[in-house]
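tokens incoming
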């Protein structure tokens, strides 16, 4: 899955990339599996905010 997100053709490229970033590919794999097995997330709608009005000087 991480390989697909990063659009690497070769899994070795992804592994090297993650190690270079200081990330453990096996720990990431476990974390991704946890999220994959959680199912769909619930979308929480937020209230609509309006931008504050701005006074224009000299106009």
């Amino acid at each position: 899955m991480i390989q697909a997100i990063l659009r690497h053709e070769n899994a070795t490229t992804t592994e090297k990339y993650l190690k270079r970033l200081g990330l453990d590919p096996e720990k990431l794999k476990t974390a991704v599996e946890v999220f994959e097995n959680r199912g769909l997330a619930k979308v929480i709608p937020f209230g609509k905010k309006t931008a504050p009005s701005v006074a224009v000087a000299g106009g």
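note: Residues 25-36 form the longest helix (12 residues).
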